[in-house]
Every structure is written in C-alpha cells, then in structure tokens.
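Need the bound structure for AG3, inputs here:
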Amino acid sequence: MELWFTEYQNNKLAYGYKISKHLHSEQTKFQRLDVVDTEQFGRMLILDGIVMTTIEDEFVYHEMISHVPLITHPNPKKVAVIGGGDGGAIREIIKHPSIEEAHLIEIDGRVIENSKKYLPEIACALDDPKVTIFVEDGIEFIKKNKNTYDVIMVDSTDPIGPAVGLFKKEFYQSVYDALKEDGLFVAQTESPFLNKDIIKPTYQAISEVFPITRLYLATIPTYPGFLWSFSMGSKKYKPEDADLSRAEAIASDTKYYNPEIHRSAFALPNFVRDLI
Ligand code: AG3
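Answer from helper R.:
Posting the output first, comments after.
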C-alpha cells in the first residue's frame, strides 16, 4: 500500500509526496506537528498540514533568509530570529564570524524539541553558546526590546494561526523599534504565483515603516508556486551596496548563496514588480 501526504493550497491545487515512513504526530498547544520521511525530499517537518522544511531543499530557504540580510549589514553582531524553531536560520547565522549573539524566539517549544530529535542536520546549532532560545510569542517579545538588534529575521509559517500577526504593520513597527539605528530585517513573504494577496499588502506595510524596502526571490521546490519571496526593510543599508567579498567568504560554506545570487535575487520579473 502506498502512503502519500498532500498539502492543499486551496480547493484547486494540491501537492503530493510519497511517504516511506510517518515518524511522529502530535497536537502541540499551538498546532498539529508531523514528521515524515518522503521519498523525493527526505525527512519533512509539517505544521498544520503545511510543509515547513525538508532535508533536501531546506538549504535554499535558510541560506537566503540569513545570508542576504547578514551580508547587507556590514557588521552584524546581535541578531534575532522570530519563528524558525527548526534551527535552520540559526545554523546559517552562526557561520558569520561577526555574530556575538543570536536569539531564537519560537512560540512553540515542541517545534524545537522535535527538530532536535528528528532533524539534527537542521537543528545542529541550537546548542551553540552564542544562541539563546526564548519559547515565547515573538510579537510580545519584540515589543519589549528597543534599539537592540542589528538584524531580525522573521522565519514564520504561512499567515494562518499563530503567524497572522507577523504579517501586520503594527508588528513591523515593533521590529523597526527593536532594531538599532542602522538595523534591517527580512521576512519570508510567500509565493508571487499563489499569494499575490499576501505579498502586496505586506510589502506595502513594510515600506510604510522602513525607508528602504526590497523584495528578493529564490526557488524552493517544496513551497507552493516554487518561486518564493522574501521582503527586506532597512533603516540604512541597501543590499545592492553590500561588500560582496564577505559574500564570497561565506560562500565557501553554502550550497545556494554566493555573490552572484546576492545580486540576482533582487532582479524581479515584471509581474512581481507590478505586485509591489
Ligand atoms: N517557514 C515556512 C514557509 C512557508 C511554507 N509554506 C507552505 N509550504 N505553504 C519555513 C520554516 C523553516 N525554517
């Protein structure tokens, strides 16, 4: 008998993955959490029926949400990840020699515990001495911190359930206040093919709060629409002015990100330009 996992996008589109093993399933305080082994993409973490990450393609997302902002900022020392309990962004962050402190603010401690157990390749840096984990609501946490971080990354789920507030202008204002005077932030902002209704207002809200706003893209085969967007809000630094010799240095330890990708990720197709 064949076992398949289906991620439903809406009532018109679904993606299916052949499963070799269903390793774990639980209802946490916040969401349903599943870990499966897929034949195509290896082990997969699923929250509320939505693919969060897989062993085969996680590097694209985690490198792009981390290295693009960390190279845009000339000297990031203190950073925060909101969400991202699997630890993939943290693993990339601590590759940067300038980093002194990385804070992970994840609302659901069970995501962290299950990632450590089932996805050690992704969660491997969560015990690094530079990392502090806060199992808290990121929206409330960020309000308590003013003028604190060089870079903030919002590694959220889709804007449903606990992540809804992470796509709102009030949250971006708190992120602005939590950043130092030359700080910048990046959020994952969904698919230009399937989530036009999300990208447009989200980008608009970020540009009302930050003087510099940019959208960049990467190809992620297990996210719907495959072409995925990230939005950056910055107080001072522009990604096109980044010192790409630092990108070259980090690229000895990446599978996707390099100086050419840093530049080309900001090249937008016309239909995406029209969205923002
Ligand atoms: N953040 C989730 C991206 C959203 C994926 N959406 C979807 N499959 N419909 C990724 C968490 C990885 N750290």
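Comments: The longest helix spans residues 58-72. Residues 58-273 form a domain with the Rossmann fold fold (CATH 3.40.50.150).
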